[in-house]
Sequence to fold (120 residues):
Amino acid sequence: MSCYLNQQVLVLNRLWQAVNVCSARRALTLLFEGRAQVVMNNSDGSFQTFNFHEWHDLSQQEPHPESVHTISFRIRVPRVILLMLFDRLPKKEVKFTRHNIFERDQNTCQYCGNNFDRKT
Fold:
């Protein structure tokens, strides 16, 4: 059971953009608290979201080998969750170093136009 709780779950923000990866334990906690919904793809290629009660009912109707047993019920481990309130992306900082500038410019000097080896 503990191996299922440690599996990775993709976390999407409210705009359906990937923002993080968390453990199944954390994903089930967010689902139970109502802060997230489970995203599941259908056979026709569409996606469907489930809150905790709907996911619990689906887990009872369609048992899955990757499930976690509690005292009173069994629940499937989600693969993707959708956060209900988070709509930001993680902050990405760009550090303006000589190395990053040369990588951006494909190792070309902006003054003379020559290409240089990165090792030197």
Notes: The mean pLDDT is 88. Helices lie at 2-5, 24-33, 52-61, 98-104. The first strand starts at residue 8 and ends at 12. DSSP finds four helices and seven strands in the chain.
